[in-house]
Amino acid sequence: KYLEERNIGFDVGVTKVPLVCQSCIFDLRVGDYKVRPDINMAYEACINAQNNNPKMGNYGAGTGASVGKILGADYTMKSGLGFYAVQIDDVKVGAIVALNAFGDIYDYDNGKMIAGLLNENKDGFRSSEEELIKITQNNNLSFTSNNNIVTNTTIGAVITNAKFTKSQMGKIASMAHNGFARAIKPVHTTVDG
Asked: Is residue 9 in a domain?
């Protein structure tokens, strides 16, 4: 509706078809599992973005996101939706990520864990990577069949007004994906989407 009102979309001659790419994370265990995004939510998100008032955290795709899931929901930490954008001369580049990872989150500048698997007292962290090593050394891979754990998907997008070829965009996507590897440990596990 938002795009159609602004005549934005794929030009098919007689009209412009407002195409919208989408993806999702599995978060049906959070809140009311019968609630679905609808046209009004999408429209409001477009208005908020247009007004430079998008929301970070537990909004939209970040509503049910969490990290540090190896020991189940009791030791999992809430995560959410984050974004960043810059402009250099006429070139604008932005990135947005819905962080719903199996692993822990680290500050890439100093290497410190900033979110993830909570310790026994839930007043600090313990390493998902170390817990994974312990579990695999004991040949106990039961976490892979735990439905609270196998529902992980971290989704991101890089948006720019710069002109690139398909090949160049592939390289940019690869570089952006490397950002996941710098910030999430462990990353790219068999239980990550």
From this structure: no
